[in-house]
Amino acid sequence: MTTLARELYSVFKIRIGIAIALAALAGMAVSPGPAPEPWQIAVLGLSVLASAASAGAFNQLFEYRFDALMKRTSDRPFVTGRFRVGPVWYAGVILLLATAVGTAAYALNNMVAFYVFLGAFVYGVVYTVWLKRRSVWNIVIGGLSGSFAVLAGAASVGADMSAPALLLAVVLFLWTPPHFWSLAAALRDDYAQAGIPMLPVVVGEKTAARIILINTILLVSASMLPTAFGLGWFYWGGAAIGGSYFLYRSLKYSLDPSPANAMKNFFASLVQLVLLIAGALVGAFVGL
């Protein structure tokens, strides 16, 4: 990958966007009714990916002065001057989001487009502009962004919202805080220096570790509920294995709230999400 490609990949937060797009496909997979045509499924995934990418780029545009205060983000292209902040970039972000929303409306339906828009709006405006530097609840409310991706997938089937889809949206909502709080705990000094009121900065490492454990218990419990509404063994296996590992790491972190354990918990949250979404997708594909 060339340097420019790596920088664009970073600015548009493609890795996060892919995860959100897969969550949308999982929302479609767990919803009853006939699946859209293959080309429509592709449009769903790409629209959610483009929407998330637009929000990710806007986040870096808006935050570039604050990113310069944090070691983790100090080498981002807008901070270093590699990319110049200005109206061209803002116009590009708006155009990308408009294309994603318009394509979703044309190829699927208006509700899909609405949820695609809401996902970007929550992350780009509600989280980045309104809450990130003002409230400890920033990432809690920001977690709705992933939930809207699941709902976009469910809406693509065209039926009323089903219990599995709604529960999966709740799971994504509950997943985001312990995932991000773990990263913030590992990089607590960075966030404190930048004046960002993430939970570990506000309440301290020990209290944050206990709250993360409680949240993880709620998350894992909620992740098992869709099996009572028709999701099969593949989903159950993914949710059980990933959830057990995340619980284990969260318990270890609560007993020893060190930055190293916080980072291990952060990666455990990624393992849980991957296994959970993979279980939903594979289970729907093979019918188990």
Structure description:
With 288 residues, this protein is mainly alpha-helical. The protein has two domains: 1-161, UbiA prenyltransferase (Tetracycline Repressor, domain 2); 170-288, Four Helix Bundle (Hemerythrin (Met), subunit A). The protein is built from 14 helices and no strands. The chain has helices at 3-11, 14-29, 38-67, 77-80, 87-107, 110-131, 138-142, 144-157, 163-186, 188-194, 199-203, 205-224, 233-255, 259-286. Helix 2 (14-29) runs antiparallel to helix 3 and helix 12 (205-224) runs antiparallel to helix 13. It is globular.
List the helices and strands and how they pair.
Blueprint: H1 3-11, H2 14-29, H3 38-67, H4 77-80, H5 87-107, H6 110-131, H7 138-142, H8 144-157, H9 163-186, H10 188-194, H11 199-203, H12 205-224, H13 233-255, H14 259-286
Helix pairs in contact: 2-3, 2-8, 2-9, 2-14, 3-5, 3-6, 5-6, 6-8, 8-9, 9-10, 9-12, 9-14, 12-13, 13-14
CATH-defined superfamily of the largest domain? UbiA prenyltransferase
CATH topology of the largest domain: Tetracycline Repressor, domain 2
Round the Cα radius of gyration to an integer and report it. Answer: 19 Å
By DSSP, the count of extended strands is: 0
Q: Count up the domains.
A: 2
Mean of residue pLDDT?
94
Oligomer: single chain
What fraction of residues sit in β-strands?
under 5%
State the CATH class of the largest domain. Answer: Mainly Alpha
Structural class designation: mainly alpha
Q: In the CATH classification, which architecture of the largest domain applies?
A: Orthogonal Bundle
- Count of individual helical segments: 14
What best-fitting shape do the alpha-carbon axes yield?
Answer: globular
What proportion of the residues is helical, as a percent range?
A: over 70%
SSE order, as H and E?
HHHHHHHHHHHHHH
Cα-to-Cα separation, first versus last residue: 38 Å
- Low-pLDDT regions: none
Profile the largest sheet: none
